[in-house]
Predict the structure.
Amino acid sequence: MKNPQTSDNERLLALKFLLHFVGDIHQPLHAATRTDPQIGHEDFGGNCVGVLRGNDRDPIRLHSYWDTNLVVAAVGQDENRAVTELMPLITASSQKEWAKGTPADWAQESHGLAKSSVYAGVIDKAPVQTDFVFKDRDGKPDERCGKSKVYKIDPSYDQQGIKVVEEQLAKAAVRLAWLLKENLQ
């Protein structure tokens, strides 16, 4: 992005990839996967773990729950609301602290959160179903998953998850700004 000989189209593409990668590295399930010790099957970053919230009858993937549901619950779908929600978290001291480290360190941090905050409160309970079959985008059984376990989550899991999501989004914003500054000067 810094090279003046790079075409505008290539710079735009590089910027899009940077935005995507910085966002993804802060989503804990993009930095972790788990193998169920009872069946020896990988869950592909929570994509093969079902969760039910409240009186829901149709499980959703744990990964989607963190990628979408908790993000909307934390900051809504409006950019202005997101800024309003996240700005109080971005203090001078948090900016200084969060700009430290490397992308590999940030991925390790997200991996730790997957273990301590994403999987905890889900897989440490008895599943309510052990033979659920997720469908792929074509409506066919998702062959990666086979038979998946489904867990019921409670409102306290939501509240804890929203706090994690808010902080991860704020960290991503600070770190993206830092990367852009470093790579565009």
Q: What stands out?
A: The chain is about 50% helix and 10% strand. The first strand starts at residue 35 and ends at 36. The longest helix spans residues 155-184.
